């Protein structure tokens, strides 16, 4: 099977969805934006920068004199927190709700822009009292509570780059990140609510701070969220409600250079030492603000926006904090899991706040599919007008399910491709412009230049596959890897001369639309054929019995690699079916036959193993490296970036020793 045939298979149903006429008529962005940006890319970005309020307007758009080290809007000065908060209050929108907070236990808080301004000012004053100065790094290790957003904005306000560490990470992961960023302050909480129980966070901070390399942390600022018992170091630990609450609620923001560091965020990375991705101020805020306005068609007066990502992930940074708040949006912030106390919790939240724009991940969509159509059907989701997806390729099956069951078969779905490194959305349909194709991210945004190249770096023609590259610098691009310029050069800029290598496989269809095919490390080589894990997974999930699938190539004496599929069965799977043992013969043959029909006989999995859960990173990405370890009978590698490390124990303990059958 050639990759082109399989793409043709993927596209065979040729489903296309035109933008709803009403949405198109009032859309923030029309097709003209592509023309404007095409005619003069830098002028286009200079115009987008004027969405922001600058203390000193930039005169230079891009300084690319020392590639790949970019400087955008370099002589401009601005304050990010002022742009996300104060200017909306000054414009008369102080009473507009910024955040509808929904705690997992059902407690709520409504925070207006005026209140947010006071909270951020108090937190900024508190950090200053703790001796934080411009340029000092602050680690943030918090659950999904308003203080997470307030802390990030307080750091931005005083020019202290933050390093947010996902609350699900271990003490070890936290310690390495504190050390690498050389943080002086850690902001955390006693705990957060998760699955109906308080789940402690502070003990992980206490443990992390016993590790060598973290000695420079002077203070730990602790939010009281759960009220659980917490060990205390009187010299070092400070309660948020004691320090922050007594601060003056005004603070005058200072303008910083456009290239002042805004934050470091360590990539979820499925392999190797985490990379501290550095984002700066002016270009980052320009592109997050523009893309949030364009891709979600945000109307700040009427929309209620909800991004379900965690704040510890770049989606949380760009599309919970900086993009939406710079645009004066009203948004929902939810602390807990989608199935607490019941599997309709998300839809209940959509109904309660009349959410109009929802941005989530394919893994969550597939989980909801698995729970069944009846659950969202119980709620009034008619307020929704745009649905977004991010994090991994969305298989057409899930895309269609999302549109049909959540979007009443009318709401556009925007599949947004980007990375921690790109800082903001890069390739996506526009809801009022693009005729969408389920499973494809389709088109680089206005002002973004992306294409697909072959091994030699030559652009491939329509209908062919290869590697995704970005051919021009963009405003929200990473500036380097923190403390390691060489690794920045090697990782992204050395594979193809003068172009950014994203690490993703991609194809262009006959119309030139881009289809993402997963990380290139995940491509399998079976009897001399390149087969993408994404496509086999997509084929498996298109079978009615399969809810989720993770496919890996395991070393095989005959074929080089053999396809091994881990699947989650849909609906009420029996205990036997999820035992982790090879699937019963009948089901295996049925699924193999189905994949052969969808993709060709070469793509038939050699082994199919039903499991109860799949190992995923915090951003919902399957850790194929670990599944390969299982499929190849090896001891497990590093599991510290898994959201739930017990998943692997479960899979492994129940697996028979993998001997090759068939
Ligand atoms: C990688 C980046 C972007 C924020 C969340 C993840 C994959 C992301 C898509 C998409 C296909 C996607 C890519 C990318 N990815 N969005 N719409 N279609 N693949 O950030 O953890 O830095 O991961 O996620 O493989 O390179 P990240």
Based on the structure given, which CATH architecture of the largest domain is correct? 3-Layer(aba) Sandwich
- By CATH, the topology of the largest domain is Rossmann fold
What's the total number of strands?
30
What Rg is obtained from the alpha carbons, in whole angstroms?
24 Å
Look at the structure and give the CATH class of the largest domain. Answer: Alpha Beta
Largest sheet: 8 strands, mixed
Helix content: 25-40%
Shape: globular
Tally the helices. Answer: 21
List the uncertain runs.
572-577, 656-662
Name the average pLDDT: 92
**Range of strand content:** 15-25%
Number of domains: 2
Q: Which small compounds were modeled alongside the protein?
A: 5'-O-[(S)-butoxy(hydroxy)phosphoryl]adenosine
CATH superfamily of the largest domain: ANL, N-terminal domain
Give the strand order, joined by hyphens, for the main sheet. 12-11-8-6-7-14-15-23
Distance between the termini: 21 Å
Task: Give me some keywords for this one.
single chain; 662 residues; alpha/beta; Rossmann fold; GMP Synthetase, Chain A, domain 3; 8-stranded mixed sheet; 7-stranded mixed sheet; 21 helices; 30 strands; globular; disordered C terminus; binds 5'-O-[(S)-butoxy(hydroxy)phosphoryl]adenosine
Structure overview:
This protein is an alpha/beta fold and 662 residues long. The chain has 2 domains: 3-436 and 446-453, 3-Layer(aba) Sandwich (Rossmann fold), CATH 3.40.50; 526-657, 2-Layer Sandwich (GMP Synthetase, Chain A, domain 3), CATH 3.30.300.30. It is 31% helix and 20% strand. The protein is built from 21 helices and 30 strands. The strands form 8 sheets. It has an 8-stranded mixed sheet with strand order 12-11-8-6-7-14-15-23, with helices on both faces. A 7-stranded mixed sheet has the order 5-4-17-16-18-19-20, sandwiched between helices. The protein is globular. The two termini are 21 Å apart. It binds 5'-O-[(S)-butoxy(hydroxy)phosphoryl]adenosine (WT7). 5'-O-[(S)-butoxy(hydroxy)phosphoryl]adenosine binds at residues 267-268, 314-315, 390-393, 415-420, 441, 502-504, 516, 519, 619.
């Amino acid at each position: 099977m050639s990759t082109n045939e399989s793409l043709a298979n993927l596209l065979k149903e040729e489903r296309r969805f035109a933008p709803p006429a009403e949405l198109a008529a009032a859309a923030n962005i029309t097709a003209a934006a592509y023309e404007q940006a095409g005619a003069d890319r830098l002028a286009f970005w200079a115009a987008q920068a004027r969405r922001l309020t600058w203390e000193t307007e930039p005169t230079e758009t891009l300084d690319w004199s020392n590639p790949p080290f970019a400087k955008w809007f370099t002589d401009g000065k601005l304050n990010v927190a002022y742009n996300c908060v104060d200017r909306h209050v000054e414009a008369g929108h102080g009473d507009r709700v910024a955040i509808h907070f929904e705690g997992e236990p059902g407690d709520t808080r409504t925070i207006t822009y005026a209140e947010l301004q006071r909270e951020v000012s108090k937190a900024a004053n508190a950090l200053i009292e703790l001796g934080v100065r411009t340029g000092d790094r602050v680690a943030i290790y918090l659950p999904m509570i308003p203080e997470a957003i307030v802390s990030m904005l307080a750091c931005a306000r005083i020019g202290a780059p933050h390093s947010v560490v996902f609350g699900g990470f271990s003490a070890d992961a936290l310690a390495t990140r504190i050390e690498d960023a050389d943080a002086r302050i850690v902001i955390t909480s006693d705990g957060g609510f998760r699955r109906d129980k308080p789940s402690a966070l502070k003990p992980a901070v206490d443990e992390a701070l016993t590790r060598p390399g973290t000695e420079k942390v002077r203070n730990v600022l602790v939010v009281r969220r759960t009220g659980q018992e917490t060990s205390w170091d009187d010299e070092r630990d400070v309660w948020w409600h004691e320090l922050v609450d007594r601060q003056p609620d005004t603070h005058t923001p200072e303008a910083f250079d456009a290239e002042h560091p805004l934050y470091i965020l360590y990539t979820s990375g499925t392999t190797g030492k985490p990379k501290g991705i550095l984002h700066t101020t002016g270009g980052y805020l320009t592109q997050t603000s523009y893309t949030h306005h364009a891709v979600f068609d945000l109307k700040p007066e009427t929309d209620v926006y909800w991004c379900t990502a965690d704040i510890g992930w770049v989606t949380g940074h760009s599309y919970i904090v900086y993009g939406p708040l710079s645009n004066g949006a009203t948004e929902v912030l939810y602390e807990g899991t989608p199935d607490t106390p019941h599997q309709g919790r998300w839809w209940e939240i959509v109904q309660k706040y009349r959410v109009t724009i929802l941005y989530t991940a394919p893994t969550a969509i597939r989980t909801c599919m698995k729970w069944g159509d009846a659950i969202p059907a119980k709620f009034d989701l008619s307020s929704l007008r745009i649905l977004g997806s991010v994090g991994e390729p969305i298989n057409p099956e899930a895309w269609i399910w999302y549109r049909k069951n959540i979007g009443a078969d009318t709401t556009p779905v925007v599949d947004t491709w980007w990375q921690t490194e790109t800082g903001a959305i890069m390739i996506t349909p526009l809801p009022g412009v693009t005729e969408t194709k389920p499973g494809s991210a389709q088109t680089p945004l206005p002002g973004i230049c992306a294409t697909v190249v072959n091994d030699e770096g030559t652009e491939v023609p329509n209908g062919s596959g290869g590697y995704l590259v970005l051919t021009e610098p963009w405003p929200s691009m990473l500036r380097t890897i923190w403390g390691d310029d060489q690794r920045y050069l090697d990782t992204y800029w050395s594979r193809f001369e003068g172009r950014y290598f994203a690490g993703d496989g991609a194809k262009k269809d006959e119309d030139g639309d881009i289809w993402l095919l997963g990380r290139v490390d995940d491509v399998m080589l079976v009897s001399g054929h390149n087969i993408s894990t994404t496509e086999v997974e997509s084929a498996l999930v298109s079978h009615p019995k399969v809810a989720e699938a993770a496919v890996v190539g395991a070393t095989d004496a005959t074929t080089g690699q053999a396809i091994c599929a881990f699947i989650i069965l849909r609906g009420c799977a029996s205990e036997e079916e999820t035992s982790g043992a090879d699937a019963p013969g009948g089901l295996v043959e049925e699924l193999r036959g189905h994949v052969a029909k969808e993709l060709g006989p070469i793509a038939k999995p050699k082994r199919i193993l039903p499991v109860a859960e799949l190992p995923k990173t915090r951003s919902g990405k399957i850790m194929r490296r670990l599944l390969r370890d299982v499929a190849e009978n090896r001891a497990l590698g590093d599991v510290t970036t898994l959201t739930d490390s017990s998943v692997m124990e479960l899979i492994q303990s129940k697996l028979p020793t993998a001997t090759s059958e068939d």
